[in-house]
Design goal:
31% of the residues lie in helices and 20% in strands. By secondary structure, it is of the alpha+beta class. The chain is elongated, with a radius of gyration of 31 Å. The C terminus is likely disordered.
């Protein structure tokens, strides 16, 4: 038993019984196993430790999760992914067949009509994946499985999941992220703008290899092959394999264009011509050696009709299955839709994988669905959606891949948490879809860094706002203890440029030195009032910093090149353009499950995902009150807004903002930062 097999079996022993190793490639070892709970055979693919050590685990899980949302007849689904004994693995159903690689090793070339059928199935899979925002990036014969006369594509999303840095084509271990023989020139060059057309190029290489008997380029090393991909032009297919039908050869040659603009632009464009090549008028072979001339003549006469009949039968079989599924979903959903029991409708639709944009579900969609139109800056962010209700089971619900922005999708009415991920950063926003309505969102993922800020567009402030608010940026969360610690450690309390000459503390106006002498922690060291020896309490690094005066909040903001938000800006970021009373909408019944009101202490920032504001800012309702730049209603005071963990939910309302002396330090008051649009600070 290999070391990895033994470690894997030990870690997964209660769930899987590993039967044997099936082999593998540069990026995985492959094992056949029985999933004990379901009694089914699965394939477990394990990353070698030397590769797993260089992989960003969070990105690996995120990319695999996106790929796991792909459900298509010609895509081998990913069932689960995880980490066991420091081994990264994922599981897929066991397909009792062979890979196209094994077929080519046994039989150097594939007959053109059979090659066209294989390519049609692969193009169908790629078309579906590309519509859902997923690019394979490693299409090759090893990842195409043949069984029961059909081809299926495996390992969707794995190449991108392993590319932890998001750019290089070869890892530090020398293992290719993508396979050089099948890499498009822009992929080989590490072009960050490379898109789904890399899959079309790879499909062209696979087609060339099936028809000609070898790939269009070869070399003694990966680097030599990549150099040819970047500089050479493949010989036309019919020069190497003259028996190839001209229509098929033309498709392959176009896929192999070095410039992606010269290629076929989508997998959709390949399906119909490949189908035509795979089922020509003479494809039904009725005549055989040993039969009379008359039998062959009859076969030639009836072959076109037989082929058409077969196509018609297959179409009607698919049509009947689709209609039957639609009938089941409609039967299970229409009564619930009429009664506005949308969670029941969602369960029926989600369980069947039904597409509500299809004409079959038009009447159901009209009663129980709406549309989400989402754009991101920059474009291309991956979008996952998780239905919020029933709220009590939200944490156990699996996010569904919705594709890449810009996207337009039909959803069962209700609220969804949208998680966006891109190279630029991430964002979470709540989306509420009404029956027959359309929600349009234009958002900008924020950098995944300490103190990251989300963009807020211009508009009006809610409540007693004084007028329009220009575009600005605001902290995704309150400033944390860990962030404020950097300010303390860097001597922020000793930097006179950060502080006013006099400060109002304890009811008296004090000179800077005397005032700073009172802004100390429990041990007399400069810092927030609840700290000791210049350090925050153990285990509270990600909690909002509290026990800081307005002056300390403003000094920290200057130190990082930012500022405190105005009250109008704060409430605009909290409520957006809607008229709901809370950041998450009008649902007051679930406030204690969404936000930290009436609690026992502050929680780590971002803990309450379902309290996120329309612009993606967390914890604006509850947790801690926050200092803003504006003067309070009483002379010589400043405002603290948003309510805290000690208060009831109405503490969030603008009318319940409290006026405090700017030198006051409360254990329920913290702050978050703001900046003018596109400004960014930080140390």
């Amino acid at each position: 038993m290999s070391d990895i097999l033994s470690r894997l079996q030990g870690a997964l022993g209660g769930e899987f019984r590993i039967e044997r190793e099936l082999g593998g490639g540069g990026m995985s070892q492959v094992f056949l196993a029985e999933e004990l709970g379901l009694g089914r055979r699965v394939v477990i693919k394990v990353l070698p430790p030397e590769l797993a050590g260089s992989v960003n685990l969070e990105r690996f899980r995120r990319e695999i999760q996106v790929a796991a949302g792909l459900q298509h007849p010609h895509i081998v689904p990913i069932l689960r992914a995880g980490q066991a004994d420091d081994l990264l693995y994922y599981t897929m159903p066991f397909i009792d067949g062979e890979s196209l690689r094994a077929r080519l090793a046994r039989q150097r070339q594939v007959p053109p009509l059979e090659a066209a059928r294989i390519l049609r199935d692969v193009a169908d899979a790629l078309s579906y994946a590309h519509r859902h925002g997923v690019t394979h990036r490693d299409v090759k014969p090893d990842n195409i499985l043949l069984a029961e006369g059909h081809a299926s594509v495996t390992d969707f999303g794995v190449a991108r999941a392993l590319d932890a840095s998001g750019g290089p084509t070869l890892t530090a271990t020398g293992i290719a992220i993508g396979t050089p023989l099948y890499m498009a020139p822009e992929q080989a060059a590490g072009d960050p703008q490379a898109d789904h057309r890399v899959d079309l190029y790879a499909l062209g290489v696979v087609a060339y290899e099936m028809l000609v008997g070898e790939p269009p380029f070869s070399g003694d090393s990966p680097q030599a092959i990549l150099a040819q991909q970047l500089t050479a032009t493949a010989d036309p297919v019919r020069r190497r394999a003259p028996e190839t039908p001209a229509a098929l050869a033309g498709l392959v040659d176009r896929c192999l264009a070095r410039d992606p603009r010269g290629r076929t632009q989508s997998a959709d464009e390949l399906i119909e011509p490949l189908t035509a090549v795979a089922t020509p008028p003479g494809a039904v072979q009725a005549g055989r050696v040993g039969r009379g001339l008359r039998a062959r003549a009859l076969a030639r006469r009836w072959a076109p009709a037989a082929a058409a009949m077969l196509a018609l039968v297959l179409f009607f079989a698919w049509e009947l299955r689709s209609r039957a599924q639609a009938a089941r979903v409609m039967a299970a959903s229409m009564a619930a839709a009429e009664a506005e029991r949308f969670d029941e409708v969602f369960d029926a639709v989600d369980g069947a994988g039904a597409d509500l944009s299809s004409r079959r579900y038009r009447s159901l969609a009209a009663r129980a669905a709406g549309r989400l139109v989402m754009e991101t800056t920059p474009a291309g962010a991956e979008v996952q959606l998780t239905r919020v209700s029933p709220l009590e089971s939200f944490a156990q619900r699996t996010p569904r891949a919705a594709g890449r922005a810009p996207l337009r999708i039909t959803l069962v009415a209700g609220q969804y948490l949208a998680r966006l991920r891109s190279e630029a950063g991430s964002l979470e926003v709540l989306v509420t879809v009404a029956p027959g309505g359309e929600v349009r969102l234009a958002v900008e993922p924020a950098a995944d860094t300490v103190g990251s800020q989300v963009a807020v567009g211009p508009g009006s402030a809610r409540g007693a706002g004084t007028g329009p608010v220009g575009a600005f940026r605001i902290g995704r969360t309150e400033v944390t203890n860990a962030e404020f610690q950097r300010f303390v450690a860097a001597g922020g309390y000793r930097d006179a440029t950060l502080w006013p000459d006099t400060m109002l503390i304890g009811g008296a106006r004090r000179a800077r030195a005397a005032a700073l002498g009172r802004l100390v922690d429990r041990t007399g060291v400069p810092g927030p009032s609840g700290w000791a020896n210049g350090a925050f309490p153990p285990g509270e690094a990600q909690r909002p910093v509290v026990g800081v005066s307005w002056y300390e909040a403003a000094a920290y903001a200057r130190w990082v090149g930012a500022r405190l938000p105005t009250t109008d800006e704060w409430y605009r970021a909290a409520l957006g353009d809607g008229d709901a009373p809370f950041p998450w909408g009008a649902d007051a019944a679930t406030v204690e499950q969404r936000a930290n009101f009436g609690g026992v202490a502050a929680t780590d920032v971002g803990t309450h995902a379902l309290s996120v504001s329309p612009v993606g800012a967390h914890d604006m309702a509850g947790n801690v009150r926050e200092w803003v730049a504006d003067a309070g209603s009483l002379p010589h005071t400043r405002l603290a807004v948003g309510g805290s963990w000690q208060e009831p939910s109405y503490g969030f309302e603008r009318g319940y903002s409290i006026s405090l002396e700017p030198g006051a330090r409360r254990d329920v008051v913290g702050f978050r930062l703001a900046a003018d649009h596109r400004e960014s600070g930080g140390r």
